[in-house]
Amino acid sequence: MSTIDTRLIDGKQHAAALTARVSAEVAQLDREQGQVPGLAVVLVGTDAASEVYVRNKTRQTSSVGMRSFAHTLPADTSEAELLALVARLNADPDVHGILVQLPLPPSIDSTLVLDAIDPAKDVDGLGQVNVGRVTLGHPALVPCTPLGCLLLLEAELGSLSGLHAVVVGRSNLVGRPMSQLLLNADCTVTTAHIHTVDTAAHARRADILVVATGRPGLVRGDWIKPGATVIDVGITRIPTGSGKTKLVGDVVFEEALGVAGRITPVPGGVGPMTIACLLSNTLHAARRQWAGRNTGRAA
Amino acid sequence: MSTIDTRLIDGKQHAAALTARVSAEVAQLDREQGQVPGLAVVLVGTDAASEVYVRNKTRQTSSVGMRSFAHTLPADTSEAELLALVARLNADPDVHGILVQLPLPPSIDSTLVLDAIDPAKDVDGLGQVNVGRVTLGHPALVPCTPLGCLLLLEAELGSLSGLHAVVVGRSNLVGRPMSQLLLNADCTVTTAHIHTVDTAAHARRADILVVATGRPGLVRGDWIKPGATVIDVGITRIPTGSGKTKLVGDVVFEEALGVAGRITPVPGGVGPMTIACLLSNTLHAARRQWAGRNTGRAA
Lengths: 299, 299
Known about the structure:
2 copies of one chain form a homodimer. By secondary structure, chain A is of the alpha/beta class. Helices cover about 40% and strands about 15% of the residues of chain A. Chain A has 2 domains: about 80 residues, Rossmann fold (3-Layer(aba) Sandwich); about 130 residues, Rossmann fold (3-Layer(aba) Sandwich). Chain A contains 10 helices and 11 strands. Chain A is globular and about 60 Å long. The termini of chain A are far apart.
């Protein structure tokens, strides 16, 4: 049996190109209008992974010439205190994007906080208004990870119209918005999840297979239709046996090689696109706010 | 080949049962608390079909003991005038549900009007906030037609968990919210539409096939998996040749008999559930508003 020469989708390269475009636009806006987009990132508590994410976001925000506002609050911050901060940021004309790093401490209702963010500044796209707009196919600020996946797919495949996309996972952060974006891009979309009977059979029919379950090694080589495009959103650190660790996706990468037409590696696939899309969303949100319009637009 | 004894899903009967429950609850609320839910229906222009719908809605609203407020505006009503009426209804404590009959005249931005309705009173569930809540799997006021379909399915099949549902059509009124509700009910969900390649092949894999395209006769008998449950949302009036007309669905009903396990007839299937769900949504919206909560709940 002949195998396919699987093409790796270089997320770093796509992300660098998007970031460079954002950076150039920010410089032009600053030069021509004297205006600079600002992104506020709010971290509650001292979760180590969250601290790394927030540090990366604030560093990259500054590196494209935007203003970065980091707000680090103690783990015992009350819901009311956090809501008061969100209200201040909503009212702050220097802040065009607001990102509240998840997860929040269990004493705080995440939904309440996400919905309190002004939809025009909701650059993570997780509040109910932007989610509704995406579902209705209206202009919206779109969650960064699924937006990054969509941009990779469109860059690699061009029009997605008529392709059958199977999304494994239905989280509010990735799976659900991913399914909506693919439907808006005129794919036929199947959403599979923990209750799905024979996920492998569904996966095998996919022209585009997006996997976002956080279960390392879930998707085997024989789950993939020969030539399909595979987007592996999972990223889990596992021990390698010698006291070291490595990052792996939800797809058994070695088995996918020779079967998939294209695949995102882990790391270096979807991951880098997420922050690039956050910067792009912030730029667009700022443009909309300066134009006096109250809705965002996807990258 | 043996054929299946296809069971007809009696929408009239299910709708009558739901309407009776709403009526009993309204009477109890009136008796015990002296409070009566109120539904405002707004019609712009003189579209004949819309006039029939609005008359049916107001009549049934009254018949379950709720207050009905009909607002009929001329076809040349401006967007600003309609928005002003919506604002008055939002502020009116006697009005717990607001329904703006679609389609609106082309001079009026429907999205703007639907989003202007207080989400707590948006009993049609078409505004961005309720759409977002449904997509996120949060409590919401759910569009009446897909809600009616879901209630029929749950009444007929019990738990839908793990079943493969194929929804043909992706309108904001039916297809998209239907896919979301089935996903929330733990179905594996495929959404097919005008750009889908080989819709028949997708349909043939469905345990639950929901068709909402408005294309009479689209779904043939050989599109249906033997034993599947078919929900036919389409309703189109066609000439019969002798100067008369009849109502037909999107499914060739005669061909589905003997193949489908269960099917909704047209008329008498999904149709009657829509108004029953509107009444149920209005009752729930009223309860939530009296309780001082600002979110609705599905029937």
